[in-house]
Amino acid sequence: MVRRGDKLRVWMSILSVAALGGCDRMVTSREAQLVKEADTKAAQGDFLWAINLYEAALDGTPQSAEVHYKLALLYDDKMNDPLHALHHFKRYLTLNANGKHADEVRGFMKRDEVVLATSLSGDSVLTREDAARLRNENLSLRKQLEERQPKPRSATAEKSPAARHPDSEKKKSGAHTYVVEEGDTLASISRKFYKTSSRWKEILDANKKKIDDPDNLKAGQRLSIPKE
Asked: What's the distance, CA 50 to chain centroid?
């Protein structure tokens, strides 16, 4: 025979489990609400308030990796704070090493480490993009010098102006040429050239005839990057 006290204890246990389950749902709902509010604040340009909301939503679980990614971009693009950006990029990889942003994050981290090292040392460090730009400018100058040198006339028809100056259209448009690498996105390419991911739309507009799927760039594809 079950005593009355035993029945009471069973019911108390059931109520406790139900209450705990309800708390879990409330916590999940609260975190989702915080992220939603943070997204709104970030879109409105209230970046400090957005950062506070995102940080309040962090719980150390793999699900919060996306929040760390959003925080890193805010610190990097809007706050000009590579130190805090690096922290959140690293947390993203720790929580979700194979996530959809993983390759992009590793590239961002390399750039931020260079920026941070430069600011701490006070020395000028040439970035990969700057080096590529200087190399292209040197090649262009070399071509111009070669074209100015007198050349023997041949029996063949004279080349058209476009053939003599293959980079004339590039000079007119004032755009860089970039070869897409594996894992590149429009946002990551924007960050490489403009130090911010927000100008990806300009790159898309300049390459509408070349880009079939903006979310799936093809490695080896040549894109025109408008100058700043």
From this structure: 18
- Asked whether the CA dihedral 192, 197, 198, 204 is positive or negative, the reply is positive
| pLDDT bracket for residue 113 (50, 70, 90) | confident
Burial class (CB in 10 A: 0-12, 13-18, 19+), 133: middle
Domains annotated on the chain, with CATH: 25-121 (1.25.40.10), 171-228 (3.10.350.10)
Give per-residue pLDDT as tens, 38-81: 999 989 999 999 999 999 999 888 889 999 999 999 998 888 88
Question: 11: burial class by Cβ within 10 Å (0-12, 13-18, 19+)?
Answer: exposed
Helix, strand, coil percentages (3-state) for the chain, rounded to 5, are 65, 5, 30
